[in-house]
Write a structure and sequence with these properties.
With about 200 residues, the chain is α/β, with parallel strands linked by helices. Helix content is about 30%, strand content about 20%. The strands form 2 sheets. The protein has a 6-stranded mixed sheet. It has a two-stranded antiparallel ribbon with strand order 2-3. The longest helix is centred in the C-terminal third of the chain and has 21 residues, at about 165-185. The chain is globular. Bound molecules: 2-acetamido-2-deoxy-beta-D-glucopyranose (NAG) (4 copies). One 2-acetamido-2-deoxy-beta-D-glucopyranose binds near residues 3 and 68.
Length: about 200
C-alpha cells in the first residue's frame, strides 16, 4: 500500500496536475509483446546509456504497475522489473502515454501495465500459458485500485518470422489471442493498438 500512497502524495503535491478522472480512477493501458515493446532503446553492449528522450520523460500523471503490483511514478526503463532476463532501455510506452495526455488531458492519470518479455513468440502468449496468465493477473490487479482498461498496446511478431510456417500461422494465432483477451477481460470492444514491424524490402 505504501508505494500507492507515495504515488498519490507525489501527484497531490505536484502543481498544475490535471486529474480529471481522479474519482473514477486511471486510464489503464496494457503493454505487451516482445523486446520491441519492452524497450531496447539506448542499450549498447548490455548496458543502457540512461538517455531518456523528451517525449519519454516522466510525467506525474503517468504511473506504472510494478512487478509487485504497486503503482509508482513511471520512468524508463518501464519493463526493468518485468523483462528481467534482458537489459531494458527505452520503449514506446512512455512516448505513447505522454502523447495521449498532450492530445487529450481528460484521460486523467494514465496507468501503464508493462507485461512484455523479450524474444517471446505468439504461441507463448496463448491463453493458458504463463505470459497470458501473468498479463491477466497484472491487469486485474491494475483495475483493483479503480480505473478503466482503455486499451492493449501490442508490439510483437519478430520471433514468429523464423520459419515460413510460423509466419503463415501468425495471423490466425494473433486473432485468437486478441479474441481471448477480450473475452477474458469481458471487454468485447477493447481497443487494441498493434504495431507492425516494417517490411524488409529486398535491395
Ligand atoms: C525489434 O526488436 C528487434 C530485436 O531487438 C530489433 O532487431 C528490431 O530492429 C526491432 N524492430 C523495430 C521495428 O523496432
Ligand atoms: C561494444 O563492445 C565492443 C566489443 O567489446 C566494442 O568494440 C565496442 O566499442 C563497444 N561499443 C560501445 C558503444 O561501447
Ligand atoms: C514494490 O516495489 C517497489 C519498487 O518497484 C518497492 O519500492 C516496494 O518496496 C515494493 N513493495 C513491496 C511490498 O515489495
Ligand atoms: C515459441 O517459443 C517456444 C519457447 O521458446 C518454443 O518452444 C516454440 O517452439 C516456439 N514456437 C512455436 C510455434 O511454438
Amino acid at each position: 500500500m505504501l508505494p500507492l500512497l507515495i504515488s498519490y502524495t507525489y501527484l497531490l503535491i505536484s502543481t498544475n496536475i490535471y486529474i480529471v478522472d481522479a474519482a473514477t480512477g486511471k486510464s489503464i493501458f496494457i503493454l505487451a509483446g516482445q523486446s520491441n515493446m519492452s524497450g531496447r532503446g539506448g542499450v549498447v553492449n548490455l548496458t543502457w546509456d540512461g538517455y531518456v528522450p523528451r517525449e519519454s520523460s516522466p510525467n506525474p500523471s503517468i504511473l506504472r504497475l510494478s512487478a509487485n503490483l504497486s503503482w509508482e511514478l513511471a520512468v524508463e526503463p518501464l519493463h526493468c522489473d518485468i523483462d528481467v532476463a534482458k537489459v531494458c532501455g527505452v520503449g514506446p510506452g512512455m512516448a505513447f502515454a505522454n502523447s495521449l495526455l498532450r492530445k487529450d488531458p481528460r484521460f486523467g492519470v494514465v496507468g501503464l501495465v508493462p507485461c512484455a518479455i523479450g524474444g517471446t513468440n505468439i504461441s507463448e502468449w496463448a491463453r493458458g500459458g504463463g505470459l497470458y496468465n501473468q498479463m491477466m493477473r497484472r491487469t486485474k490487479a491494475a483495475v483493483c485500485g479503480g480505473g478503466v482498461i482503455r486499451g492493449l498496446l501490442w508490439y510483437q511478431g519478430e520471433s514468429d518470422t523464423l520459419t515460413l510456417k510460423d509466419a503463415e500461422a501468425y495471423k490466425k494465432r494473433l486473432h485468437r489471442f486478441f479474441e481471448d483477451v477480450r473475452v477474458d477481460l469481458r471487454l468485447p470492444l477493447l481497443p487494441i493498438v498493434q504495431v507492425k514491424c516494417p517490411n524488409h524490402i529486398p535491395a
